[in-house]
Specification:
Length: 404
């Protein structure tokens, strides 16, 4: 029962995400157009960065409350409803309701909506991951089976990312994707309610364990560097494809197809983990993502949608390998009463790096080009892997840090 519910949570969250993440950068560029100066590059960068920055503290607060009072599902429901509110606010500037509004008004409304979205969406996935891991243990399954649950999120993403480009093209407006996004999180809120406990129980949180975990602290530095490169490059990949003349449908399909390799990788997660260990999965996944950005930079002259789709397959393979490695690395190091906190701290640092990456990406796009951004992203991902290999070296006695 708990495993089925965890699959549903993963599916609905990523299905909702798949309706908008491939197009967020394009949507902001579409809405934040100044009649006098053209696209507001800085304004887009500010909106994207603020939406990441405000998510820095909320996962830590949510993780503490989840660990302290065991209220993960109550938090999933309340946070999801607030994300839906943020989505509807982001929807307004691109809708007919604000068709005649000026640039400043559209910017303020978008900034408010992006702030609400970033503040409340960030804590959800670490809570869902924690719920997934707890469900696996309750069913006498090992955490190495995480990928078999998380794969349903990939399936949800593939479905919605595939069809959203067609929906946008058919409707003639990008703002329709925000209605799908909001609907997805309302559904997630209802699903969260099915796991409510009748009683809220308090436990002791062992902060000393976290303070003494040096390997985990260095791991967070690695995550920051990685996120600066990956987030800006990933969000602006859609902008890059649009700059090269690819259609909305082609962009959506490329993001959808990119997730397909996640399915076999996550289904085979136990075997891959046994062979490579969490460190091998993290390094291998990062390598695929660095190569992806480098190839995106190199194939600009081809302007062939099929070629971009093929290159984006590396995204799914790299992301799934790396994220499954992250989850295993953190879960094996975390104290029982710090599992949600460990997952949340990872997302906080990733958000901070993403905020820096998004703002930097907008500046690079304006000063140079979206193509140059792909090369910078590849370099930053490679630099993060060097840091990880040199400095994030836990004791050999730590389970899951070496192949078993």
């Amino acid at each position: 029962m708990q495993a089925r519910r965890a699959r549903a949570l993963q599916f609905v969250f990523f299905a909702a995400y798949g309706t908008t993440i491939p197009f967020f950068g394009l949507y902001y560029y579409h809405v934040l157009v100044d009649a006098a100066d053209g696209t507001g590059y800085i304004a887009v960068g500010v909106v994207l960065s603020v939406s990441m920055l405000v998510g820095i503290l909320s996962p830590l607060v949510a993780g503490y409350l989840a660990d302290r009072f065991r209220i993960r599902n109550r938090l999933i429901t309340s946070l999801s409803l607030m994300v839906a509110v943020g989505a509807m606010t982001i929807y307004l500037p691109g809708s007919p309701f604000m068709a005649d509004s000026d640039f400043a008004t559209r910017f303020v409304v978008l900034l408010v909506g992006a702030t609400v979205n970033g503040l409340f969406v960030r804590p959800i996935i670490p809570l869902i991951d924690t719920e997934t891991l707890i469900g696996l243990r309750a069913g006498n399954g090992g955490v190495e089976r995480y990928g078999e649950i998380r794969v349903f999120g990939s399936i949800g993403w593939v479905i919605t990312a595939s069809i959203t480009g067609f929906v946008i093209t058919f409707s003639g407006t990008m703002s329709v994707m925000l209605l799908l996004y909001a609907s997805g999180f309302v559904t997630l809120a209802l699903l969260g309610r099915t796991g409510f406990r009748s009683e809220i129980r308090s436990v002791v949180v062992p902060w000393k364990h976290l303070r003494s975990d040096r390997a985990y602290q260095r791991f967070l530095v690695f995550i920051f560097i990685l996120s600066v490169g990956i987030t800006g490059g990933y969000v602006y990949t859609g902008v890059y494809m649009a700059d090269l003349g690819l259609s909305i449908v082609a962009i959506g399909l490329s993001y959808a197809v990119a997730a397909l390799p996640e399915i076999p990788v996550l289904f085979g997660g136990r075997a891959i983990l046994a062979r490579l260990g969490s460190r091998g999965m993290i390094v291998g996944g990062g390598f695929f993502q660095a190569v992806k950005f480098l190839l995106l930079f190199l194939i600009a002259g081809a302007r062939a949608p099929a070629l971009f789709v093929l290159v984006m397959l590396l995204q799914g393979a790299g992301y799934s390998l790396q994220f499954a490695g992250f989850v295993d690395f953190m879960d094996r190091r975390a104290h029982e009463n710090l599992r949600a906190t460990y997952q949340s701290l990872y997302h906080i640092v990733f958000a901070l790096g993403g905020a820096v990456g998004n703002l930097g990406a907008s500046l690079i796009d304006r000063a140079f080009s979206s193509r140059a951004l792909m090369a910078v992203a590849a370099g930053l991902v490679a630099a993060s892997l060097v840091y990880f290999c040199v400095f994030v070296r836990p004791r050999l006695s730590d389970a899951g840090d070496a192949p078993t």
